[in-house]
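pasting for ref
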Amino acid sequence: MEVEHNHFSHLKKPLVYLPFQKIYAMSIVLKKGLRKPTAANVIYLIKSGTDLKGTSLTADEIDFVRKQHRAKHQVVELNRYKNVVYVVYGDLLGTRETRLETWRKNGNSTQHMIKKAQVERVVVIPVVANKEEVLAFTEGLMLGNYQFLKYKGDANKLRNSLTQVDVYMPEMEDADLDRVVLLVDAVRFARDLVNEPDSYLTAVQLSEEIKMRGEMSHAKVEVFYKNKIEALKMGGLLAVNRGSLNPPTFTIVEWKPENAVNSKPYVFVGKGVVYDTGGLSLKPSNSMDTMKCDMAGGAAVAAAVHAIAQAKLPVYVIGLIPATDNRPDGNAYTPGDVVMMHDGTTVEVLNTDAEGRMILADALSYAKIYDPELVIDMATLTGSAARAIGSVAMVGMKSKSDQEFDLLKKSGDLVHERIVEFPLWDEYKEMLKSEVADLKNIGGADAGAITAAKFLEHFTDYPYIHLDIAGPAFIAKRDSYRPIGGTGIGVRLLFDFIQSKVG
């Protein structure tokens, strides 16, 4: 691993330095309850009014809960003053995917009630709910408890009250609950990264955060700094970085267990543009407001690989995260430039705001050295994708990977990080033809999400899936257990996809 820290003295420093590894949102202890509580704060999970007979509620309380449910309340609160009781209704009907998402959303709704009541500890008692549904409920409860308070002066006053959840269910295993904690923490890590401002999270700092996380997960982390990136002739990443005072990084996260079920790795590639002004093709001011989120794909990839490693899943996976900011400095790359990419392809730059595909192309080309089983890239790549389907799903396209794409979509439906497939037909490549180079870096006014993916496909020769997460990666309004700001989209998707490889 090449280290260049001694050359960073001239770099922009964080305006406010606060150690990233501190927990900004109070961690919740999740564990198995060993005995049925008598006077604790309780959450009963049921599916119909008849299930209320299996609770400790009085006849009057049961009558109240039924009336509230008839008034369309899925979560009903009973404040007994000495303790608080929550009754949560799940779906009787619907697909498995729909039922699990209902439980997650109800977990989030319960968390909001818990916060208002300033409850610190609860016991979950599934009267009628199977293990998978209980885990979905606790996942929603804990994901909904997320807060990013690092820069709040009154953080201690704002912290959510919930600190411990006990699950009283004899058939529940400690390992099941540990998996929820691990995955929620991985999502929180990704959200924290996305929510960090560029004043702290430079490309170098992003690589440092991923390295520190590797100490916890035991995944191997290697960082290429600028000299190594130049030696590898990653022209796309270097071109985008030319307008920045801070150097680029290329981070590799590897989990290769001895008992891996695959010899050829699954490779995840995540876009790591830590801030995007558009470069010389400058964005309007209000379009820059949220551009600290342009590394959400890189955050998701790093968090997912670390979670896979912490769970010790017997699958060989690699994450690649090219990172830089994109700024309009005096030496910034310009429209009209021709850039030589890592694989020797020449690219005519017609829009410097199409920078994500430039850095991803180098990473996709580099991925060939691994002879991968499959490569999935994840990026906040195009406004076109966000305009097409909004924030409720991500856009996906595939090449030579029909079966794997179907399995990935299945994982997406299960964890409710859904994928809408767009075509990747060869006709779209015509829009990328250049008169002066091998390719242009943009197509045209139409089909922007597709031509971006078609550009990236050029740099692959293996089974490949492209995921554009521009819509759901960063949201302006809370969506159930997905908070305002970074959502951590993609972490649970990639984890479930890899977990499905081992049953």
